[in-house]
Amino acid sequence: MSYSVGQVAAFAGVTVRTLHHYDRAGLLSPGSRSHAGYRLYDDADLARLQQILFYRELGFTLEETAAILDDPQANALEHLEARQRRLTEEISRLQRLAEVAARAVEVQRTGVELTPEERFEVFGEIAFDLSYATEAERKWTASEGGREAMARAAAHTKEDWRRLMREAGAWRAELLAAFDEGEPAGGERALDLAEEHRLHVSRWFTSCTPAMHRRIADDFLADPRAFALVVPPSQQRPGLAGYLREAVHANADRRAGTRTTEGEDR
C-alpha cells in the first residue's frame, strides 16, 4: 500500500517539509512516485521513518542516523551506548547549572542582595534547600500566615537578617546545651526554649500560634531539609529533631492550659 507525503506527515507527526528534507538528504527517499510525480511511501519507508525519528529523539544527527541505517557493518548497540554516555554527561552538566541557578534563586528569596562573603557572614552554615523552599511555598502560600511570612522575609534588610541569625544562633546554642546535658523535652528549660522559638518566628516572619508551631515542629521531624534551616547538619545530634518536636508540642499544651486557666479566672 502506498501513502502520499501528506498522509505520512500526518501519521508520523512531522511536517511535509521535513519529509522533503529527508528525501533531499538521501535519508528517506520514497519507494515510488505517482504518475503525476508525487512522492509515494510504502510500508518499508514508514518503518525506516520510524527508526529515523527514534534516533532523532535521542539527539543523533542525520549523518549519524544514515550511518547506522545504511551501513550493514554498523553496530547500532555501540552507537546507542555511546549516545547514552553523552546524554548522562549532559544531564550532569545541566544538574550543575541547575544548582548554580538554585543558589541564585536562594539569594533572591532572601529579598536582599549579598556577596558570597556577606552570605556566609549572615547565614553561616544554614543553607536554604531550593526544593524544600519551593514545596514549603506551595504548602503554606494558601494560608494567611504563610503569605505574611514570605512577604516579611522578602522585606528584611541585610541588617535584619544579621540580627535574626544572631538571635537564632544564640537560641540554637541553648537548645544544643539543653539536649547534650540531658534536659527532658517536657522540662521547663526545653519548654522555655520552644516558646522562645515560637516568639522568634512571630517576631521575624508571622504570628505563630501554638497550633502553627506544632505543624512547623512536625516538619522538623518529617523533613531533614526543614530541620537544617534551624540546626545545620554539622551541629545536629541523633534524636535532636524529635526532641525539639516533643518540646514544641509540650509547650503548645502548656500554652493551651494557661489560656484555659486565665479564662476560668475571669
Write the layout of secondary structure elements.
Elements: E1 3-4, H1 5-12, H2 16-24, E2 32-33, E3 39-41, H3 43-57, H4 62-70, H5 76-109, H6 116-123, H7 130-140, H8 144-155, H9 158-180, H10 188-204, H11 210-222, H12 224-227, H13 240-265
Antiparallel strand pairs: 1-3, 2-3
Helix pairs in contact: 3-4, 9-10, 10-13, 11-13
Domain HTH merR-type: 1-71
InterPro entries: DNA-bd_dom_put_sf, MerR-type_HTH_dom, MerR_fam, TipA-like_antibiotic-bd, TipAS_dom
Organism: Streptomyces polychromogenes
Give a structural overview.
- With about 270 residues, the protein is an all-alpha fold.
- The protein has 2 domains: about 70 residues, Orthogonal Bundle (Multidrug-efflux Transporter Regulator, Chain: A, Domain 2); about 160 residues, Antibiotic binding domain of TipA-like multidrug resistance regulators (Globin-like, Orthogonal Bundle), CATH 1.10.490.
- Helices cover about 70% and strands about 5% of the residues.
- It is built from 13 helices and 3 strands, in the order βααββααααααααααα.
- It has a 3-stranded antiparallel sheet with strand order 1-3-2.
- Strand 2 and strand 3 form a beta hairpin.
- Helix 9 runs antiparallel to helix 10, helix 10 packs across helix 13 and helix 11 runs antiparallel to helix 13.
- The C terminus is likely disordered.
